[in-house]
Amino acid sequence: MASSHFLCSHHVFLPSYNSFKKSQSHLSLFKPNGSSSFHSNSQFKRIRAMASDSNTPTRRQVEVVYNPEERINKLADEVDKEAPLSRLALFSPCKVNVFLRITNKREDGFHDLASLFHVISLGDILKFSLSPSKTKDSLSTNVSGVPLDDRNLIIKALNLYRKKTGSEKFFWIHLDKKVPTGAGLGGGSSNAATALWAANQFNGCLATEKELQEWSSEIGSDVPFFFSQGAAYCTGRGEVVQNIPPPVPLDIPMVLIKPQQACSTAEVYKNLPHLKFSHLLED
C-alpha cells in the first residue's frame, strides 16, 4: 500500500523524497507493545484560575494544562488489551495524473479511462485510536466543510472493513488535512485506503493487501491505486491497477497549483460531451 510503505519502509515512488523526509517527525513512533505516541504541534488547552486564602491577602495564580490527546490515548489503551495495537498514525499521500484519457462512456454511467497515477509527497496525517464505542466511529478534522459522518470515505472504509471481516472494533479518528479538496488529487480516496489498511492492522491483519485492494473499489474508483507501489497504469474506472517503474526521477521538483475553485469529480464526468472516446487512445 502506498501509505503503509511511506510509514513502514519508505519504499514508494516520490517525486520529492527530501520533502517527505522533513515530514517524518509528524509520524508515529512505534513501540514494541503495538501502541504509538502521537506528536502534535497543537497547543494544549490552558485554564488559568486565581486562588486566595481568606487569612492572607495574597493571591496565587494556578495554571491547569489539559491535553485531550493524552486522555484519548490512555482510554484507547484500555479498550482491548489483547489487540495488536491501540493507536496508530499514518501518512496518507495524494496523487497526480501524469496523463488522463477518457476512452468510453459505460452503460453503468461510469467512464472507462487510461491514466498514469503517481503519488507525491503532499498528504494528510490520519490518527487512529481504539474507541470504547460498540456502535460508531468518531471522526474529527482540522478543517471546516469536511463531512464527519458516513458520507466521509474514511467512515465508509471502516464500515466496509467491518462488513467484510466481522470485526467489531470502532475508532476515534483525527484527520489532519493538508490535501485540498475538489482538486483531483485523490485525497479522500487515499484517506479511505489508509483507513482500510489501519483497520486491518488493529485486527491482526485478517485480510491480505490484495483483498483490501479489491474491496476498496466498492468505495471509489481511485481507492485501489493507493494499495499500489506508488506509480501505476490504471484502466477500467481506475480500479484496474498495474504497477510500473517510476517514470520520473524520485527527486524531481514539482510545483502544484490549486485554484480556489473546486470541481466535483462526478460533475466533471457528468458534463463531458457525449462523444466517441476511442480515438483518444490513438497516438
From TrEMBL:
<dbReference type="GO" id="GO:0050515">
    <property type="term" value="F:4-(cytidine 5'-diphospho)-2-C-methyl-D-erythritol kinase activity"/>
</dbReference>
<dbReference type="InterPro" id="IPR014721">
    <property type="entry name" value="Ribsml_uS5_D2-typ_fold_subgr"/>
</dbReference>
<dbReference type="InterPro" id="IPR004424">
    <property type="entry name" value="IspE"/>
</dbReference>
<keyword id="KW-0808">Transferase</keyword>
<protein>
    <recommendedName>
        <fullName>GHMP kinase N-terminal domain-containing protein</fullName>
    </recommendedName>
</protein>
<keyword id="KW-0067">ATP-binding</keyword>
<dbReference type="InterPro" id="IPR020568">
    <property type="entry name" value="Ribosomal_Su5_D2-typ_SF"/>
</dbReference>
<dbReference type="GO" id="GO:0009507">
    <property type="term" value="C:chloroplast"/>
</dbReference>
<keyword id="KW-0547">Nucleotide-binding</keyword>
<keyword id="KW-0418">Kinase</keyword>
<dbReference type="Pfam" id="PF00288">
    <property type="entry name" value="GHMP_kinases_N"/>
</dbReference>
<feature type="domain" description="GHMP kinase N-terminal">
    <location>
        <begin position="152"/>
        <end position="229"/>
    </location>
</feature>
<dbReference type="GO" id="GO:0005524">
    <property type="term" value="F:ATP binding"/>
</dbReference>
<dbReference type="InterPro" id="IPR006204">
    <property type="entry name" value="GHMP_kinase_N_dom"/>
</dbReference>
<dbReference type="GO" id="GO:0016114">
    <property type="term" value="P:terpenoid biosynthetic process"/>
</dbReference>
